[in-house]
Amino acid sequence: MNEYDEIVLDTFLKHQTQLFDEKVASNPEEAEVFLEDCMAVVLENIQEVRDYFEEIGADIASMSDNELLEASEVFSLPDGRFLVVEA
Questions:
Q1: Is the dihedral of CA 78, 46, 40, 38 positive or negative?
Q2: pLDDT confidence of residue 11
Q3: Could you report the per-residue pLDDT of 10-20, keeping only the tens digit for each?
Q4: Contact residues for 83 (Cβ-Cβ < 8 A; gap 6+)
Q5: pLDDT of residue 73
Q6: Beta-carbon neighbour count of residue 68 at 10 Å?
Q7: Is the pLDDT of residue 87 over 80?
Q8: 3-class secondary structure for 3-42?
Q9: Is pLDDT above 80 for 1?
Q10: Close Cβ partners of 7 (under 8 Å, ≥ 6 residues apart)
Q11: Interatomic CA distance for residues 5 and 22, integer angstroms
Q12: How far apart, in whole angstroms, are the C-alpha atoms of residue 15 and residue 59?
């Protein structure tokens, strides 16, 4: 089970509508439960994001790093890490 810190939870709460039409969580506790249910992952850098998508079989070979970061499932965290949420 992942541990989601305050930065992850706050970022997801603020930007969750980039992936969902309506909010799925209204506070950090709900956000944590939702992220755990989705098995969301926190990754350290863009290479880890790319490796993650390749491991799950996503066809990203032709995508640039910028295109990958613009994917709705990828949340850029203020400290340079990335949260990936599979809906």
A1: positive
A2: 98
A3: 999 999 999 99
A4: 8, 11, 12, 35, 40, 41, 42, 43, 74, 75, 77
A5: 96
A6: 17
A7: no
A8: CCCHHHHHHHHHHHHHCCCCCCCCCHHHHHHHHHHHCCEE
A9: no
A10: 77, 78, 79, 81
A11: 23
A12: 25
